[in-house]
Amino acid sequence: MSSESSSATLIARRAPAARQRWSGYRVSDHAVWATLYRRRMTDLPDQASRVFLAGLAAVGLDPDRIPNLREVNRRLAPRTGWRAVAVAGYLPAPAFFARLARRRFPTTVTVRSPESLDYAPEPDIFHDVFGHVPLHADPTFAEFLGRIGALAARASEPAAVERLARLFWFTVEFGLVAERGEVRVYGSGLISSTAEARHALGPGCDRRPFDLAEVLETPFEIDRLQPVLFVVESFEELFRSLDGARRLLGVK
């Protein structure tokens, strides 16, 4: 894919009716997880939002083993009500966002191959759990994610869903946040990818202050390093933006 021609489909990328057979993971699968975890934790203490790092500690991911979703949810659900639920493939946008509205995060349970360590064309459990789930432990971000799901689930016009997919992309997937005078990464596509994070924080990325109207009208491309990203001042700013999105898009 070369642009956002299927961005709503991209966001809603997983299918229902899957189970995580944790005992079925091979030694090589756990080795892939361990390699990716250690690679990212070399950089993330200096790159990532402190909210993400606190969430990572709270959900207790094992550096050496693929997470068992039951164990993750046992720690996560009492904090914010969120659960990671196993899925296997693509899910229509309304169903994906409806799950978010119920605080259920559709989570791919497959892991990329050793040959795809640097780039996986589709989400895997490292992207979905390591990249996404730690922020679900933060009450403000957890509320934002649930409400963007509810807003998109209520949107009746495809154009509104498309614009909410852009908001999801530039925040949940590729968001930046200002913390203590520094720009840090929090979007899962940045958290889980060394190349994406370094580019996002480097001279080749156009980092702009978060502006809701601009975000909703900015197309994104999925097959290249992101040329434009947006920096929020806080996760409270994200939360407040949803009322504006509802008004601009005419969603009741």
List descriptors:
252 residues; two-stranded parallel sheet; globular; 12 helices; 4-stranded mixed beta sheet; 6 strands; alpha/beta; Phenylalanine Hydroxylase
Question: What can be said about this structure in brief?
Answer:
This protein is of the alpha/beta class. The protein is 51% helix and 11% strand. The chain is globular, with a radius of gyration of 17 Å.
Model description:
- The strands form 2 sheets. This protein has a 4-stranded mixed beta sheet with strand order 4-3-6-5. A two-stranded parallel ribbon has the order 1-2.
- The chain is an alpha/beta fold and 252 residues long.
- 46% of the residues are buried.
- It has one domain: Phenylalanine Hydroxylase (Orthogonal Bundle).
- Helix 5 (93-101) packs across helix 7 and helix 7 (139-154) packs parallel to helix 12 (235-249).
- 51% of the residues lie in helices and 11% in strands.
- A hairpin with a 2-residue loop joins strand 3 and strand 4.
- Percent in strands: 5-15%
Number of domains: 1
CATH C-level: Mainly Alpha
Q: What's the multimeric state? A: single chain
Q: Give the CATH H-level superfamily.
A: Aromatic amino acid hydroxylase
The assigned structural class equals alpha/beta
Strand tally is 6
Average of the residue pLDDT scores: 91
Determine the CATH topology.
Phenylalanine Hydroxylase
CATH architecture: Orthogonal Bundle
Shape: globular
Q: Give the helices and strands as they follow along the chain.
A: HHHHEHEHHHEEHHEHEH
Count of individual helical segments: 12
Q: Termini, distance in Å?
A: 32 Å
Uncertain parts: 1-9
Strand arrangement across the biggest beta sheet: 4-3-6-5
Based on CA atoms alone, the radius of gyration comes out at 17 Å
Q: Biggest sheet, open or closed, and with what strands and sense?
A: 4 strands, mixed
